[in-house]
Amino acid sequence: MPVAATKKIARTASREQRRQQLIDATIKCISKQGLGSTTLGDVAKMAGLSQGIVNLHFTSKENLLNETLRYLAQEYRSQFSRVLEKSAPEAAEKLLALMEMDLGPSICDRKKLAVWFAFWGEVKAVPTYQKICEAHDRNYNAVLCELCRTIIEEGDYRHVSAETVTDALSSMTDGLWLSYLISPRTFNRDAAMDAVYSYLQSVFPEHYE
């Protein structure tokens, strides 16, 4: 495509496209230098745009960061919903599919994990981050807990708590994400999934053989 045509497309990008371009640039910046060190100028440079464009669409760094976190939460929620819809109807299969999604490359991505952890580190100081993250966790835990309850009823696992299993699985994935973020060279997705499966097998032996 001629350079002139490319520039014309860039100038005429829709508002939604431009906002997404800036959010993508923000994710890249935060993954490289953290929340505190990321400036609107950095985002503009990463996106190949002027800082005036950033100000036009988000007016402030606070708004840009809030929208970036909302985008990440919505992106995760969309994948989560698709996996629930497309996986096998059995609760055990759905639960396993969600765990595989959490450790797959679309979610377990170092760039995005760095951004998630950056926001999680600020939830106590920024009420908006806390609200978004709490809503995200609440939805995740509610779905996992309901799946676990179904499995418990099916297998008559009398001494198993759905809430406890949900907390354990959530803690495992958080820990494995952090392991990948800190030590990418030694992290092994298959081994990580084996660890999750072994836990499920120990709790629900009739469902995970």
Reading the helices and strands in chain order gives: HHHHHHHHHH
Q: In oligomeric terms, what are we looking at?
A: single chain
In total, the number of strands is 0
Structural class: mainly alpha
Mean pLDDT: 92
Helix % is over 70%
Tell me the distance between the termini: 55 Å
Explained architecture:
With 209 residues, the chain is mainly alpha-helical. It folds into two domains: 1-59, Homeodomain-like (Arc Repressor Mutant, subunit A); 69-209, Tetracycline Repressor, domain 2 (Orthogonal Bundle), CATH 1.10.357. The chain has helices at 3-11, 15-37, 40-47, 51-58, 61-86, 91-103, 110-120, 127-155, 162-182, 189-203. It is elongated and about 60 Å long.
Architecture blueprint of SSEs:
Blueprint: H1 3-11, H2 15-37, H3 40-47, H4 51-58, H5 61-86, H6 91-103, H7 110-120, H8 127-155, H9 162-182, H10 189-203
Helix pairs in contact: 2-3, 2-5, 2-7, 3-4, 5-6, 5-8, 6-8, 6-10, 7-9, 8-9, 9-10
